[in-house]
Structures are given as structure tokens and as C-alpha cells.
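As agreed, record copied across for absentees:
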Amino acid sequence: MYSDFFSLMHRLRYIYRWNGTNVIYKEDVAQHCFDVALITHLLCEIYNNMNETKINCGDAVICALYHDYTDSILTHIPAPIKNDNNNIKNAIDELKIECKKYILQSLPDEMKNKQGQVFNKMNDKKIKEVIEIADKIDSYRKAKMELLRGNLEFTNAHKNFKADMDQIYNEKEYVRFFIDTFMSNLDNSLQAEFRYLKS
């Protein structure tokens, strides 16, 4: 059988985030999913080093890579709209369920169960927490980088994301380690030796 699954996931690179906002650097959903997966991996490794109970890094990273997979059909709906009230949130959740069914149905029969398990692991309490935090970190990073390049349209977004980051920073030790280690240098450009190969 012919499957639309890969074509659907491939469409994520054509779906842009921050709809209705003037951005200096456009960002598509595929880029965002990669960044969230990268942050999720680092968060999991840090968490596992600090705690006896472990998060399955492989499962978490795969879930992060797919975390916005329904955008391939729904396109990107900004968080302030999704979370404006319970009626909207519940309606979008219902749409996501229908999209999940459609996307799974697009797979060959022998792959549906395994991919369904991947999507279902997104509901694991710890995996869900880490991905949501990674998502917020990536959104904060985006807002900060736009501000640093003079885009004042991200002022309010940065303020809101910063408030979220401050709260998580104070509550989660592993997040505090990540932010102190990897986020403190966002204000600076990479040094030349990282941009050019040396002979």
C-alpha cells in the first residue's frame, strides 16, 4: 500500500510558527520539533544524573520529535489562542484526536501499533513534563533572540516566557542546571573558531 505518513510529517517544514507576528527569522514546525527534541535529550540526561528514578531518554526524544505532529493537518495554532478558554482547548484536543487517528490510519497495518505506542508515550507523566518544559525553553529562546535583533514585537512574548522560565528555574533543579549551562550565553555570538574550519 502507499502511505501518506512521511509526506504528512514532511509538511511540517512548510508550516510556520508565530502566525500573525512579524519575525526576523522564520521558524517552521519541523525546526521547532528538532530543537525541542535536542533540549529534551539534554534535560533527560541532566535529570537522570541527578535522580535515582530515570526517564527513558530514547522514548522522550522520539516523543519530542513528534510532539507537534498534528500540525501537519491542523497547521500551527498559537498557544494564546489554544489556551484562551476551556471550550477552545477542548475543541482543539478533539481535533488532535481525530488527526491522530487519520495519521495512524495512513500507515501500513504492520506499523500502526508501534507508531500508536510512540504517540501514546507522550502521555507518560514524566516524558510529558520534560517535553513541555523543553517547548517553553525553545519558545523563550526564540523570543529572546528576536528581541536581541531589535524585534520589539516579541516584547510581550519574551516577558511571558521569562516569567514561566523563572518559575520553572526555581522549582526544578535539572532545569536550573540546563539554563545556567546552556542558556546564559544566548546574548553572545559564537566565536569565529566555531564558524570556520581551521587548516
User: Anything to note?
Assistant: The two ends are 51 Å apart (CA to CA). The domain at 5-185 is CATH 1.10.3210.10 (Hypothetical protein af1432). The chain has eleven helices and no strands.
